[in-house]
Amino acid sequence: MPKPLMETYAPPEQIFERGEGVFLYERSGEEYLDFISGIAVNGLGHAHPKAVAALKAQAEKLWHTSNMFRVPGQIELAEKYCRDSFADRVFFTNSGAEAIECALKTARHYHYANGQPDRYRIVTVTGAFHGRTYGAINAGGNPKYLEGFGPRMEGFDQIEFGDHDALRAAVTDQTAAVLVEPVQGEGGVREIPEVCLRGLRELCDERGALLIYDEVQCGAGRTGKLWAHHWAGDAAPDIMAVAKGVGGGFPLGACLATDACGEHMVVGTHGSTFGGNPLAMAVGNVVYDELTREGFLDHVVEISNFLRQQLGSVADAHSDKVEEVRGKGLLLGLKLREGYVNKTLAKHARDHHLLIGAAGDNVARMAPPLIIEEAHARRAVETLDAALGALQPE
Ligand SMILES: *Cc1c(COP(=O)(O)O)cnc(C)c1O
């Protein structure tokens, strides 16, 4: 049977028609507790009244002009991003992969503009995920995502996650930048220890390389700080790619940079038809205001501590099947023991009306809306308990 869609996904049978807060609903009315939120996207939950109102109001005024004309919402949102971060300049995109592309171009262009055009190599770590464009799959280095798409792009070096010696050897006078996720999402919900981020910052400074963070998944309040690297104190990047959570469900991403890097991205160096479009800006501003509202991130820290502790108990109770609890804030994973399969656990959970995801390294991934309450965490953990109980080796 010919199908109209490219079969790049394998979705389950559920079809969701409506969302509200932390729940999704099928047409039949069946309710599901959403502990994956479109993979760390719907941080404010579904149909957040302020986001809905902002989108509706903008939809009635103006949808699109392209970047031929100024979009006032861009300046407003960029000022907010810069106010609360290392950044001085922002480029808006529609997705994470585009934010990564802009970050890579910005890094290379910095060295080019400073008379070092041969300094173009990008160092990444195993388990990385940076998106599905050509640049992003070559940066990510996952052989599964590269296979069948022609020769590897020149200029990317990958070292083993956590191998400090290899890192020191890989960052040379040809290295434009080191690109890492402070907390790996797709690769198995793996955190880079804060002390290592600080060490990485020092190494980059020592060698004259730039530091790029991919906070597409771990940013936007997900770990309990606005940006995940804020936990590490003095480890600010030169460039940062964000997306997913910053749009709360509306396609939005951004590349943030210091003045030193961003100033070279002048007319003709980069562009996007849709990036920073008025609809995205209307929603992005509301999402940002909510994330930075007094007490919002405190709630994320509190509820994530609670959830993690509860998950710890469930992991202990099923220690024959669960190796460990991983992650940071509300980006959490259960690493399953060999013989047990994360996707099967996600299916069992779904059968019990709990939605979770699967990540690399046989990890069941959770990234609930940041607005969950204790009752939701309890319900999720009870369901996981049952799902783990039903999980058979395969
Ligand atoms: C999802 C993701 C991307 C890619 O984002 P898209 O919006 O799917 O292009 C890049 N980096 C990380 C860390 C991600 O989790």
Blueprint of the fold:
Blueprint: E1 16-20, E2 23-26, E3 31-34, H1 37-40, H2 49-59, H3 72-83, E4 89-93, H4 96-113, E5 121-125, H5 134-140, H6 143-146, E6 156-159, H7 164-170, E7 175-180, E8 183-184, E9 190-191, H8 194-207, E10 210-214, E11 239-242, E12 253-257, H9 259-262, H10 278-291, H11 296-317, E13 322-328, E14 331-336, H12 342-351, E15 354-355, E16 357-359, E17 363-366, H13 374-390
Parallel strand pairs: 3-15, 5-6, 5-7, 7-10, 10-11
Antiparallel strand pairs: 1-2, 2-3, 4-12, 8-9, 11-12, 13-14, 14-17, 16-17
Helix pairs in contact: 2-10, 3-10, 11-13, 12-13
The protein binds pyridoxal-5'-phosphate.
Residues 95-97, 100, 129-131, 181, 185-186, 214, 216-217, 243-244 line the site of pyridoxal-5'-phosphate.
Overall description:
The chain contains 13 helices and 17 strands. The protein is 37% helix and 19% strand. The chain starts with 15 loop residues before the first strand and ends with a helix. α2 (49-59) packs antiparallel against α10, α3 runs parallel beside α10 and α12 crosses α13 (374-390). Strands 4-12-11-10-7-5-6 form a seven-stranded mixed β-sheet, with helices on both faces. The protein folds into two domains: 16-34 and 295-390, Aspartate Aminotransferase, domain 1 (Alpha-Beta Complex), CATH 3.90.1150.10; 50-292, Type I PLP-dependent aspartate aminotransferase-like (Major domain) (Aspartate Aminotransferase, domain 2). It has helices at residues 37-40, 49-59, 72-83, 96-113, 134-140, 143-146, 164-170, 194-207, 259-262, 278-291, 296-317, 342-351, 374-390; strands spanning 16-20, 23-26, 31-34, 89-93, 121-125, 156-159, 175-180, 183-184, 190-191, 210-214, 239-242, 253-257, 322-328, 331-336, 354-355, 357-359, 363-366. β8 (183-184) and β9 form a beta hairpin. The chain is an alpha/beta fold. Bound molecules: pyridoxal-5'-phosphate (PLP). The site of pyridoxal-5'-phosphate has 15 residues, from α4.
